[in-house]
Specification:
By secondary structure, this protein is mainly alpha-helical. It is built from 9 helices and no strands. The longest helix has 11 residues. It is elongated and about 50 Å long. The N and C termini lie far apart (about 35 Å).
């Protein structure tokens, strides 16, 4: 993509990979919000901090990907070292964020599976005392039965 090409030229010229843009977001979060998998991988190769937080809500790129992304973006961030259990200002993990905000999208089960395969702890509670399972039980979407099954059957032991 043209965006990736420009980003690579800037990085090769020494542009700081974790600099904050006009909205207070580092380039990695912009790439995640744009679902630009090539640029995400490029930024991670150049040392982008996968756990940099947006000051407003303390969300990481993985939170954004879990909420709005596609499974390949979630997978790339986890492979790039993202903390799958990082908590934002509400105490939500990326797994809770995916279930709380993205539950009504088709394909969300693949994101949930990617987070679980990446080691996400389904038992962590947010500041309201709710877990990923609580959110999965509360909402109904196209993949809700599959998501609940994934959460209930997931065995974290290798």
């Amino acid at each position: 993509s043209r965006h990736r090409e420009v980003t690579e030229i800037l990085l090769q010229a020494g542009a700081p990979v974790n600099s904050l843009g006009a909205r207070g977001l580092p380039p990695l979060m912009h790439a995640v919000r744009n679902r630009d998998l090539q640029t995400i991988r490029l930024l991670l190769r150049y040392g982008a901090d996968p756990d940099a937080r947006f000051a407003k809500n303390e969300m990481t790129a993985l939170h954004y990907a879990a909420n709005n992304g596609i499974a390949a973006v979630v997978e790339a961030l986890i492979e790039g070292g993202s903390d799958v259990d990082s908590q934002d200002s509400a105490g939500d993990t990326p797994l809770i964020t995916a279930l709380r905000n993205g539950w009504n999208r088709r394909g969300q089960a693949a994101i949930i599976k990617g987070l679980l395969d990446g080691g996400a702890d389904r038992t962590l509670k947010n500041h309201k005392g709710l877990t990923a399972e609580d959110y999965a039980r509360a909402h109904r979407g196209p993949d809700s039965q599959e998501i609940l099954r994934l959460l209930m059957e997931y065995d974290p032991t290798p």
